[in-house]
Amino acid sequence: MNDEQRQIRVEITPEKAVELLRRLATEDEFRSRFETDTRGLLREYAIEVPADLMPADVHAPPQGMLLEALAALGQDVRAEAPFTPLAAEKVPFGPAPFAPFSFAYYFVFIALHRAEQS
Amino acid sequence: MPSVRRSPWVFFYRHDGTFVDVPRLLEGNVELTPLRRTLAISILKGEEYVVSADELALLFAIPSDTWISSDEVATGSSATLERLARRGLVVTDDADEELTELRRRDQRLTDDQWHPYAALYHFLTRWRDVDVEQLPAWAGETGTSTRLLNEADVAELVRRLGTPPRPFADVAGPHYELPLTRRRGRLYETLARRKTSRAFDARVPVTGDELGTVLYYTFGCRGIAEVFGGLVAVKKTSPSGGALHPVEAYPLIANVEGIAPGLYHYDVESHALRLVETLSRNSARRLARHLTAGQSYFGAAHVLVVLAARFPRSFWKYRRHQRAYAVLLMDAGHLSQTFSLVCTELGLGAFVTAAVNGANAEERLGLDPTREGVLAIVGCGRASAERSELEPEFAPFAPRRADS
Q1: Residues B118-161: tens digit of each pLDDT
Q2: Alpha helices, H only, chain A
Q3: Which of B170, B146, B200, B10 is nearest to B90 (CA)?
Q4: ipTM score over 0.85, yes or no
Q5: Is 50 exceeded by the pLDDT of residue B206?
């Protein structure tokens, strides 16, 4: 086997690089496959690792490290949402102090509005 | 050996980026390392590929405006040439099915007068099989595994990303306060009630009359005018560039009284539905969820309407025009607002989303993606009395006045 064949070839595109790290960070099944079918999985992402360069045991990195790497690449997984408000369930929208009293605030607004019109 | 030419529908860029060190990754560690590569963006495939210096030299040796024999360039590199052809970077006259399809797309984009930057944007941002609910399954320090964030997560995000931009722009200059007249009437009330609905009540179907009203008042033709030589302008309730109205409506019906669940085309000329595919109610819901990229709350709507632009309708007039594609997106936006207002007036909940699996929708509808492409999906249904957890609780807002 010559030197060229023994090199790790990395032809992953920027978008696929983010996808690979994101899935490693967030999908348990994907992490398991990374550990059991490493070469096959990496090949799907255009990364060729010669068999003799493979370590005996492969362990998926800790999720926190991967998320930090993603953040360093400008991809913060937590900020992503399909064009929906970030945190509607637990974080009140609007000025936080008013949110629990928004109904009362509404009636005050209506009263002020009517006074303005009269 | 077949004849070849480089596809003109290819862009190249040099990417100086960062990736993890692969040997360290295999050891279970994450270490970032520089990764510099040249990428070829194939519009025909909607993909980008890393290309080596040798591949790049071969690509540049092949002209895009003239067919040449592959013998002239591929001495000892026929495998490389075939790889480039299957990536849509080179087109060939080979009879192979995949290569024939790529050659057809190449010719179609040229014949239909696509602007190269519009094609680049459209075909490289199309989604296929994306499921947004799978993407950010966060399992961070807080132990939550949901993409809904709690207060600590938001604080952490602000620490990482910086303070979010203010909701209102600050523009310096003299300040002229405007009269604020509170208008009454159906239009103003409907505008005030408009909102995005993400919770639907499956127990009560939408009626056929309601669906007909929504489709007619959003997509129906209100007037036609033959401008010249067979070019017919169309008047609808929304504006459209050149009065061309190239956006077609494809209702995906899950729960409408008197209309079988299925995928349809709204025939504007006869105000009728033409069946594309019959579905069961459950399979219609599954398809709705899939086409809206896993947004289960939209998948539960009674009706979705896939908005797809007939590109030649626009590009016949706006030939290789730099702004034509932007106008198509605007057309879809206008239609979505009209759709939303008509639904609001009828007491139906409505939404629009651009997070859609357009490639899947086009395949399901049997569209040729070079000629007709999905831009967005709108939907409506009987709104549930319960508020969606994704719906913010908006506090009333009044403009700040100088004397307040």
Answers
A1: 999 999 999 999 887 765 444 343 333 345 566 777 787 788 88
A2: 14-26, 28-36, 38-44, 63-72, 102-117
A3: B10
A4: no
A5: yes
Q: How many domains does chain A have?
A: 2
CA dist., res. B77 & res. B55, Å (int): 9
Query: Tokens standing for B240?
Result: 């459209």
Window 53-112 of A, Cβ < 8 Å to B:
53-55, 58-69, 71-73, 76-95, 98-99, 102, 105-106, 109, 112
A18 touches B at CB < 8 Å: no
Domain range for A5 is 1-80
Same domain, A10 and A33: yes
Best to test chain B binding among A13, A75, A110, A112 (most B CBs inside 10 Å): A13
Same domain? For A27 and A46 the reply is: yes
Backbone phi, psi, residue B126, to 5°: -75, 135
Cα gap B111→B19, rounded to integer Å: 40
For residue B10, which of B53, B30, B39 has the smallest C-alpha distance? B39
Same domain, A65 and A43: yes
- Do A4 and A55 reside in the same domain of the chain? yes
Q: Round the CA-based radius of gyration of chain B to a whole number and report it.
A: 25
Mean per-residue pLDDT, B4-10: 97
Are residues A25 and A12 located together in one domain of the fold?
yes
Identify which of B12, B2, B102 has the alpha carbon closest to the alpha carbon of residue B51.
Answer: B12
Helices (H), B112-175: 116-124, 151-161
A112: chain B residues, CB-CB within 8 Å: 398
Whole-angstrom Cα distance, residue B128 to residue B120? 16
Structure confidence at residue B1 (pLDDT): 64
pLDDT in tens, A13-55: 988 998 899 899 988 999 999 999 999 999 999 999 999 999 9
Taking CA atoms, B221 is separated from B53, B142, B295, in Å, by 54, 54, 31
Domains plus CATH for chain B? 3-111 (no CATH), 186-381 (3.40.109.10)
Q: How far apart are CA B307 and CA B291, in angstroms?
A: 12
CB B276 within 8 A of CB B225: no
Non-local (6+) Cβ contacts of A100 within 8 A are A92
The phi, psi pair for B142, rounded to 5°, reads -80, -10
Say yes or no: A24 and A38 in one domain. yes
Residues A100 and A75 reside in one and the same domain:
no
